[in-house]
Each structure stands twice: as structure tokens, then as C-alpha cells.
Amino acid sequence: PIIGLPGYPVSGIIVMDQLVKPVVARLTMRPFLPDQFVEATISRRLTSTLKYLEFVRARLGAVNGKLIAVPLSVAIALFLVELAHPRLSRIVGSAIELLAAVPSIIFGMWGLFVFAPFMSERIQPFLAKYLGFLPLFKGAQMGIGMLTAGIILALMILPFISAVMRDVFSMTPHVMKEAGYGLGATTWEVTRDVTIRYGIQGLIGACFLGLGRAIGETMAVTFVIGNSSKISASLFAPGNSIASRLANEFAEASDPLYLSALMELGLALFVMTLTLQIVTQWWLKRIRKRMGGDLL
Q1: Do residues 53 and 85 lie in contact, with contact meaning Cβ atoms separated by under 8 Å?
Q2: Could you give the residue ranges of the DSSP H alpha helices within the chain?
Q3: pLDDT at 113 over 90
Q4: Which of 83, 123, 154, 278 is the most interior residue, by most CB within 10 Å?
Q5: Percent of all residues in the chain with a pLDDT value above 90, rounded to a whole number
Q6: Cα(179)–Cα(110) distance, integer angstroms
Q7: How many Cβ atoms are within 10 Å of 61's Cβ, its own excluded?
Q8: Backbone dihedral region of 7: left (phi > 0), alpha (psi from -120 to 50 degrees) or beta?
Q9: What's the whole-number mean pLDDT along residues 122-150?
């Protein structure tokens, strides 16, 4: 088959066009299917397949970045609020906020010329040596690919998530913390049962905020993701995303069908972001009802 995805029988249409149509035309002395109809049908199938592949890649890249950025952001925010000296907390917090102001193209160039060679020489060989039995860590060790793009995305959204979580955790009333310490709770118990519980709404909101930024990121991902149209189980393999495909191919889209397909991909990206915001608001309202409005 030309495309091995269920629900996209492009190969069957091509076979019918190349084999069945000449036979029927010879028997009935008239054409069976117009060429324009076959080409339009194949184009629609290919466009649908393209949208499906780009949706999967966009989600995979964003999820890779979130899996790395969220635990680090929570740890940084809790350290700055609960453990660090106030002076150190202000200095580190200001540095994180300055990191958020770095343009995305700087992250992309640094990832391509500095981080990608480091990944191909150190990180990927190490992962392949000890975790190579897993499909996630097999394949060519080129430095660029889904893993590198996920780490770059994590570095980009880390300042946003950390800054929001730090502000949320710092809003926890000192009276609630002192009450926990007065009952004999440890620092970890106060952090887990008071600080995190009080700021759970802002914490989840910060996570979805970072996810929205990761899905729509363009230039940094374009530099390091590899820009390949194949989906592989390996994190070392190059990939693509909706934003990077639009950046790479929009200027070359001279054919109306090609341009329409890219415009539809942009619409799909907009719908994904809008849906994410709607789900975020619904989820936060559900948490507010479950944990109590007064606490949140």
C-alpha cells in the first residue's frame, strides 16, 4: 500500500485508476472515471493523511517538552518559595523571568549549533547504550530529532511555568502554613498539603499555558526537529510539526491545492489551541468544585 494508515485507502484508488479503468473502458468503449476525479480524490486522501500526521507530531513534540518542563518547574517554584533565602529567591526569579524574554530563534540556533552536537556525541550514545532495547531509543544518532526538539521546548516553556507557579505558591497565606507547622507537620507535609493544595488551580493553569506555547512554537522547533514527514517510534528520529511545516513550505506553495492544505493545517492548529483553552477552563472549574471554592 502507498499509505499504511487505516481509513485512507489511497492505494486502492490508484489500483482502480491504473488497472480497472482501462479494462472497463475497453469493454464499454467509454472512460470509467475521469482523471480529474481520481486526482481530486487522491489529493483529498493525501491532505487528510497529512493533517493526521501533523496533528500526531505536534502533540508528541509538545508532550515531550511538558514531561521535562513540568517537574523541573514545580521543583524550581517550590525551592524558591519554601526553601531558598528571600534574597536568593529574588535573584533566581529575576533570572528566570529574563530567560523568558529570549527570542525563540535564539533557542533554535543554539540548539542546532551547540546542543544538537552535544546530544549526538554524549546523550544519545549514552541512552542507546543503556536503553537501546526500547524502541524509543533506537535509530541513527544525528543529534536533531524529536528528543532534541522536546528538550528545547522544555527550556523555552520552563520560565513561563516556573514564574507562574512561583507567583501562585507565594500567594499561600502564611497563617495556613503556620497552622500546619503548629500541628507538627514537616516542611514537606506543609508544602504538599497546604502550598500545593492551595495553588493547584494556578499550577494546572501554568501547565496548560506552557502546553499552548509548546504546540504553537515554530522557529526553535524548525531548527532542531529534523523536518521529516515520517513517524517513527524512536525519539532519535527526525520529525515535523504543524508550525514547522507551515514555516518551511508556505513560501513554496504555488499550487492552489497545496496552499489550501497548508491553510487547513493552520486552521487545525488554531482549533487545537482553542480546544486546549476550553478544556483548561473546564478542568479548573471541576477541580474548584471538587476541592472547595474557599480553598482555591
Answers
A1: no
A2: 10-15, 21-28, 35-78, 86-99, 104-110, 116-118, 124-131, 146-170, 174-182, 187-190, 196-198, 200-216, 219-224, 242-249, 256-291
A3: yes
A4: 154
A5: 6
A6: 47
A7: 26
A8: left
A9: 88
Alpha-carbon span 76 to 250, nearest angstrom: 39
Tell me how many degrees the CA angle 270-268-257 measures, rounded to the nearest 5: 125
C-alpha cell at 55: 496533528
The torsion of the CA quartet 92, 113, 71, 59, rounded to 10 degrees, works out to 140
Count the residues in the chain.
296
How far, in Å, CA of 276 to CA of 188, rounded?
Answer: 32
Residue 15 has pLDDT above 80, yes or no: no
**What grid cell was written down for 123?**
546523550
DSSP codes, 125-164: HHHHHHHTTSGGG-S---S-SHHHHHHHHHHHHHHHHHHH
Q: What is the 3-state secondary structure (H, E, C) of 98-126?
A: HHCCCCHHHHHHHHHHHHHHHHHHHHHHH
Nearest to 155 by CA among 34, 285, 68: 68
Report yes or no: 177 and 85 within 8 Å, Cβ to Cβ: no
Query: Taking Cα atoms as reference points, which of 175, 182, 127, 170 lies closest to residue 151?
Result: 127
Q: What is the pLDDT of residues 249-284, one digit of tens each?
A: 888 878 888 888 888 888 888 888 888 878 877 876
The CA distance from 270 to 254, in Å, is: 23
